[in-house]
Amino acid sequence: MQITSKQPNIGTTIFTVMSQLAAETGALNLSQGFPNYNCSPKLIELVNHHMKNGMNQYAPMAGIMPLREAIAQKTFDLYGISYSPNDEITIVSGCTEALYAVMTAIIHKDDEVIVFEPAYDSYVPCVELNGGKAVYVTLTPNNDFAIDWQVVKSKITERTKAIMLTTPHNPTGKCLTQSDINSLAEVLKDTNIFVVSDEVYEHIIFDGRKHLSPAMHPELKERTFVCGSFGKTFHTTGWKLGYCLAPKELSAEFRKAHQWITFSCPTPFQYAFADFLKEPDNYLSVTQFYQEKRDKFINWIKDSRFEWIPAEGSFFQMVSYKNITDESDYDLAVRWTKEIGVASIPISVFYANKIDNKILRFCFAKDDEMLERAAERLCRL
Ligand SMILES: Cc1ncc(COP(=O)(O)O)c(C=O)c1O
Q: Does the domain made of 14-39+282-379 have the CATH classification 3.90.1150.10?
């Protein structure tokens, strides 16, 4: 039997490729975005506790109420925005599901979605599998990956259905500023365009910056789907639990999609996060934890021949290797994984046309020993 592929150009993701290569060669794996340390023992205890207490059957489709309430409280306390736990917060299987469910809910055939590239790899497939088309706004190192809102405006057509944002951004580490958000509001004024805001790194933000969500802007909140995750914040990427915040009418359509994708998410994990979120230090301390990791990593590579601008957020540091070689970033990432034993991700894979700016992305969500050993090897280049 043969399938006529709906995704003929999609192969194995670069993250799988590089992680596999790192495993085969014994390289230090600074490629894929997940921590190599464990989550809080308290969280594990909480999951165990709720499992032992019989919380093992289907959760409600939208998520258990105590977790939705805890998210509502945290979102209000941190960002001053209110979402009703009843009909504006939905628990999903990670941000990946949130993004897919949003696109399923809003896209009709041939609708366009504005995507900034370099782009996280699931965005465009989510758009295309739902019959839409990605319209790219290309960000480059020439202006430090800043968004030119005039360019964004010029890409809007009568078919534009949504604009996809990531803050803090993977892979660039850039964060939206208030000026970006004001420009976004200006561009979207008098349109029916939705905003899909991927905020999985909301707590991983540096140098005193404050996370700014488009939903904090009163004119944008009504059109914004905020897609969040507990994976990055709590070192639990394998638990695949996240959420979507959106006004009532938007959430209603979102939930229709969610109910046919997963219907509901694992119950004991939801109860565990509901308890864990009651103590704000559990998420507030994450910022300092990663600030130290970013600072240590860039300090350890300071004598290398790489060039970089410190990441503003996320747990990724991009570095330019143009002073070392002009090899393609993909070939170099593969070669250095094998030869020096440090795996990274080439930035070209995040561009539709594989633009090669001679930049690699290193994930610093790794224990200090691994980071220091990797940095030592990078300094020898
Ligand atoms: C920008 C971005 N969005 C979404 C995800 C996926 O999040 P989750 O694991 O919650 O599905 C990732 C994971 O790497 C990411 O970097």
A: yes
